[in-house]
Specification:
Blueprint lengths: L1 E5 L6 H6 L2 H18 L12 E9 L5 H7 L1 H9 L11 E9 L6 E6 L1
Parallel strand pairs: 2-3
Antiparallel strand pairs: 1-4, 2-4
Helix pairs in contact: 2-4
Length: 114
């Protein structure tokens, strides 16, 4: 099991849709860098390996579910780029999404890969 705390909360889908494509790429690359730094070779997904991932967004306010899940798309893509998941296909991945409120200073995203 790998537990990673990313120091920024995932943006909402509405925010992502308004972002410039280069800003989206920078955010995805930032996620990938953090995930690669936290992972070791034993955490890398093997070809065809099924994974379960839990993503918890801790932010100042709660987002509606669709907005939250859509905003996690870049993070799920970064998990693939960091080789922590084989594919984001339902055949190889199950993701559980949760969120909680916290102060703005303690806002973050928690990712657990099993």
């Amino acid at each position: 099991m790998l537990r990673i705390e990313i120091p920024i909360p995932t943006p909402s889908l509405n925010t992502l849709l308004r972002m410039h494509p280069h800003a989206k790429k920078r955010l995805r690359d930032q996620y990938t860098t953090i995930l690669r730094a936290a992972a070791t070779s034993i955490h890398k997904a093997k070809p065809g390996q099924f994974r379960r991932v839990w993503i918890e967004r801790r932010g100042k306010r709660l987002l509606d579910h669709d907005n939250f899940v859509g905003g996690c798309k870049l993070l799920v893509d970064a998990l693939g780029r960091a080789d922590l998941i084989w594919s984001d296909s339902p055949r190889y991945l199950t993701v559980k999404y949760t969120q909680a409120t916290t102060s703005a200073k303690r806002a973050c995203t928690l990712v657990v890969v099993v």
